[in-house]
Amino acid sequence: MTTPKKLFIKTYGCQMNVYDSERMVEALGGEGYVETKSADDADMILLNTCHIREKAAEKVYSELGRFKDLKAENPNLKIGVAGCVAQAEGEEIMRRQPLVDLVVGPQSYHRLPAMEKAVQQGAKALDTDFPEDDKFDTLTKRAKTKRGPTAFLTVQEGCDKFCAFCVVPYTRGAEVSRPAAQVLKEAQELVDAGVREITLLGQNVNAYHGHEKGLAGLIWALDKIDGLARIRFTTSHPNDMDDALIEAHGTCTKLMPYLHLPVQSGSDAILKAMNRKHTAESYIRLIERIREARPDLLLSGDFIVGFPGETDQDFEDTMNLIREVNYGQAYSFKYSTRPGTPAAERAQVAEALKTERLANLQALLSTQQRAVQETMVGREVRVLFEKTGRQEGQLIGKSEYLHAVYADAPASLIGQVVPVRIIANSPNSLAGQCIQ
Ligand code: SAH
Ligand code: SF4
Ligand code: F3S
Question: How far does the chain reach from its first CA to its final CA, in angstroms?
Answer without folding.
Answer: 50
